[in-house]
Fold:
Amino acid sequence: MRNKIKSKYDLLRQQIYIIIYGANTFWGKLFDLSLLVVILLSLILITLESMPRYDSLHHHFFVVAEWVITVFFTVEYILRILCNKRPLNYIFSFWGIVDLLALLPMYLSFFIPTSKVLIVFRSLRLLRLFAILDLMPVLGQQYHLKLALKASRNKILVFVYFIIVLSIVLGTLMYLVEGPEHGYKDIPTSIYWCIVTMTTVGYGDISPHTALGQAIASFIMIMGYGIIAVPTGIVTAEYANANKQNPELEEHRICPRCTTFIYNQDANYCHNCGEKLS
Amino acid sequence: MRNKIKSKYDLLRQQIYIIIYGANTFWGKLFDLSLLVVILLSLILITLESMPRYDSLHHHFFVVAEWVITVFFTVEYILRILCNKRPLNYIFSFWGIVDLLALLPMYLSFFIPTSKVLIVFRSLRLLRLFAILDLMPVLGQQYHLKLALKASRNKILVFVYFIIVLSIVLGTLMYLVEGPEHGYKDIPTSIYWCIVTMTTVGYGDISPHTALGQAIASFIMIMGYGIIAVPTGIVTAEYANANKQNPELEEHRICPRCTTFIYNQDANYCHNCGEKLS
Amino acid sequence: MRNKIKSKYDLLRQQIYIIIYGANTFWGKLFDLSLLVVILLSLILITLESMPRYDSLHHHFFVVAEWVITVFFTVEYILRILCNKRPLNYIFSFWGIVDLLALLPMYLSFFIPTSKVLIVFRSLRLLRLFAILDLMPVLGQQYHLKLALKASRNKILVFVYFIIVLSIVLGTLMYLVEGPEHGYKDIPTSIYWCIVTMTTVGYGDISPHTALGQAIASFIMIMGYGIIAVPTGIVTAEYANANKQNPELEEHRICPRCTTFIYNQDANYCHNCGEKLS
Amino acid sequence: MRNKIKSKYDLLRQQIYIIIYGANTFWGKLFDLSLLVVILLSLILITLESMPRYDSLHHHFFVVAEWVITVFFTVEYILRILCNKRPLNYIFSFWGIVDLLALLPMYLSFFIPTSKVLIVFRSLRLLRLFAILDLMPVLGQQYHLKLALKASRNKILVFVYFIIVLSIVLGTLMYLVEGPEHGYKDIPTSIYWCIVTMTTVGYGDISPHTALGQAIASFIMIMGYGIIAVPTGIVTAEYANANKQNPELEEHRICPRCTTFIYNQDANYCHNCGEKLS
Structure:
């Protein structure tokens, strides 16, 4: 008897799982679409609330709408926990934390009113759009890019580390040369200025005024201008490489359940979730 | 009898078509050249009118000159409609709307005087220069570029989408960190700032003032600096690919009537408009 | 008798030619070195004169030094004319005009005192350093680069033309959207702003203030950020191509007289000036 | 007898050498780690001292901590001199000077109190982190990058020289066009502005105000935007080349003593220091 109930519950759980995580069934597509719409609506809401002009006019409507969205997100969050075989895995995963951050501030605002500003974390849910839209045909074309980015990740990290060390060394030097009287008020600010300069952003909120400072800044700029060639060169070469070596990878399949790439042409089951492949 | 008139009219229409759309006959070349000159003149006119110094001196001359150009554009527009076999196709095409926008504001200004400022849409006609100048030898060299851009379009779009999502997430974060008192007056403004920073433009009209804000900004800058490598890598690899795979495509022909590329070496007729090829 | 004088004069002219244009003899090297030093000195002089701090102290010394350099440049200019077989070719060449511009302002300042500021054209002589230093071993490594730049020149020009047209269209649009009250005071200024934005320079002297203006600006920035991929892709692919196709070109010779590249391995005489090659 | 003492001293020196310069033994790793921690601590200390908020509160603690670190650095410096077979080589090497600069300002501050600000040179020690972290697995992936950078160094230098000459020529031109009344106060400042513009940094502390100045600036920007393609193209092509030609180089070994790359697969001894290789 109990077994029967459990099996019934299991069946329901599996069906919810397919709706929430899959995108091949009608209800799965509808769920993805509604989620997309609600996420976008919640962002428009937060944006309008941040503009005093609109907030003063429609404050009450905004509060109600926000609670409706919060309830929707809460139901979705609970369903995601329930239908997962390993709920803890989901709760402590990146997506689990993002989903929680999207609804927690509203509930917390009962106790700590100021915590409501944390609702802007809801924008992180926008990242789900990648997962939702990932299933469109454009994905096939992203694969080589992913391969290239994976191959160049370590090199890019070494490069970023190099830029940071260089910025610290040159930032402290500029602090010495220009000093607090020209806007380089402490070493962290000088390092910030150096990153602004080296990445060619150049706000101009701080800029060198002494001849020596301008000479060093010129040197930093030309160096930064040359350095940009390095990550570009790495990604380009790796991308061309990925393009060349794995032309057959274009014809991969995607697991309908967990959306993992299936590269093995002869696979009958998904290597990730064990779903039977057609 | 009617048939004869129609056939006469057809002949005239075809001749006008060849003059307006073709560039191989003497009159076709003359038309293209005059159009080019008139478009440039109209732009110089609009530019001078926008400068109070000149407008106050020669206002009446400018008004007359603008009407002369408007009449020229109107005649051209009517001829383009008449000589087309499917006039509606032209009217609702991109070029048809651009051509209409170039003359409509002047006529509208009789009823709504303020609409005259919309004359700046005339600058869109400048895009015609691509079509006019397209027939020069330089075009052959653009072909591989077009192929590469077409191949990388989807990837670039995914990338642009990624930048926009990232800007929204990081923009709302900065709104939280810096707040309206440091210039991040609402979320749209913060997102605008984030795009300004990530693309390394860096106006400096808004810039972070808190230590945490500067740290996040530094992170955004280094990320933006690394991200620029991605579209470059894609275009480069695709361009090198197009260069490699289709070396024989350099020797394409161009239809003298509709300027379509003819890749089939044995073609006797244009595959687009059916024009006989020499 | 006259023949003999002429032949003597010819010999002298040839010797001067070798000293001035060649760099293989001791006197040729010495001449190049002195020219390099004098050009650098004249630039330091102009720079110091532009700084009121130094000019007020040593004004008389600066005037004398400038006349000494002008006399040197005048003698050099006359020698260059005399030793050339076709003096007019030199006078109306790019270098001839640059050399004249370097000395003319000083003589003109007798009649028009304000013309002395034109002496800054002397900085153009700095370009001669490329010619002088061209003969160093680094040149061999520049060759593939030159080939790649030549191959991509037309495509880059089409691209620059595209950026300019786009800047005019988007600049006039922004003039309409933002208007003179936000710094976009006329259409040329708006176009200038658009180029500043699209090239990711971003001075911030003019920046959008309306929501629509900021949205269009964001679009321009992302587009400009993507567009930068195009010239990079072209140059990279062409450079890789030049590297691949002509590995043997590294072993070229250089004509000792006119410094032209000699690619033909069997050549006995320079194909440009007819100098016998060793 | 003396021989024995000398040999004992030699053994000690060698052991210290292995600890300081090697990273394969337990003590060697511990030394590297402590050095890393002390360098980071000293930087945090300097940073906090530069911020008046913290310096006013904990000034005495900071002074004591700085002396502790200085003593540590002094001991390390003396050990490095002692354990080297050729101490003078170390003292006058780049690292020797950096290590000296990190401790000298503190001792000098006894005689010249103002010299203490020179302590910021300590940030140069951060470069040691490259050497310390170099031994991690990421290094193998840096090798092709190093090869590509070495191959493109000369070309990049020619390119940097080209940018500098261009900046001088265009900077003096802008000084003439805009003049001191628009912020271009002397020629060095104009050259600085030109580098700021050409590298697309664009602070906006100086910006053109005349129509001609803005036109020239637009030209410089578009040129700078195109020029960035050149170093990127060079590095990319060279990197792709290095990747292609030397795939087997990934499997190099590293000398445990001097951390030189060992490319020869059959080598039994390090070609640099003669250390026996396993």
Summary: Chain D touches chain C at residues 154-155, 157-158, 162, 165, 168-169, 172-173, 175-176, 186-188, 197, 200-204, 207, 211, 214-215, 217-218, 221-222, 224-226, 228-230, 232-234, 236-237, 240-241 (CB under 8 Å). Residues 138-178 of chain D form the longest helix (41 residues). Chain D has eleven helices and two strands.
